[in-house]
Amino acid sequence: MYLFLLSSIAILLWAYKDNFISTFKWTGIIILSISIIEITFKIDTRQIMNFFEIINIVVNTALLSIIIYTFSLKIKYKRQFSVQLSLIVFEFILILANIYDTMLPSKFLVGFNFYLSISVISNLISNITLHSPTTEEKFDYILVLGAALRGYELSDLLKDRMEKSFEYYIPNQATMIFSGGISNSLIEESEAMKIFAMKHDILESDIITEAIATTTVENIYYTKKILEEIDPNYSSKKVCVVTNDFHAYRTALICKKEKTNWKVTYSKSDFKTKINTYLVELSACMYLDKNAHAILSVIFAIYFTIV
Q1: pLDDT at 275 > cutoff 60
Q2: For residue 116, what are the domain limits?
Q3: How many Å apart are CA 234 and CA 146, to the nearest integer?
């Protein structure tokens, strides 16, 4: 368990590097807490392993339920069908490994599964604890991230983002930035957003469009480039990034990786939308630190194999 303790300290130091806006923040805190409890109360190794396996089974069951739910919604797409069917099989394998944990391959999977489970819990806590700035806070720039269109019209989710951004807008004091290139339509998302904004009394002189980005990383990257070009003092200015709640945590992670101090606000979405997007957002968040997650998952898998 001292390896757990050392691992948690290393994970928290990694999170500190990004001012604790990191996929590793709560992972480190949870593992550190478990280590301290076991060392303090001298809990038997078998008991703590049983506890880990229970955590794994609970998390796997929750993930399996989400996968089956999204599977039922998108079964018509062949690519998604094969990917989601593979995930269902994989989750069943992990559950069986936790039940029948006497063989070395099972122990390896239990260790891998434990790190995955803690990462899932960490991601959930991070989403819940992410705070949105109040509308009383004044911003110099308000960046709205693009999303899929319906022809020339904004989707409901993108309309929610736009309407949320209007709450922070002050005419002639705040500049609106609409970011998004052509994705599934014949018009740039940013241009459609501009048209929508002007219909809602946003001054054209207060609007900047960024029409290249097709991903969240590109939204932040290209907008940062624009601000660097048009505003020599932009680094001292306050920027608010607007998205939907299920996408807010990943946006905050990307902003931090792009070395900005931008704040993220979000419009609220219904429970169905959150469930439908959860796995994509979880995977995308972990992908941002994929190498570190891969190394740590292997370390925990090997540790569980040898104890």
Answers
A1: yes
A2: 2-131+285-306
A3: 22
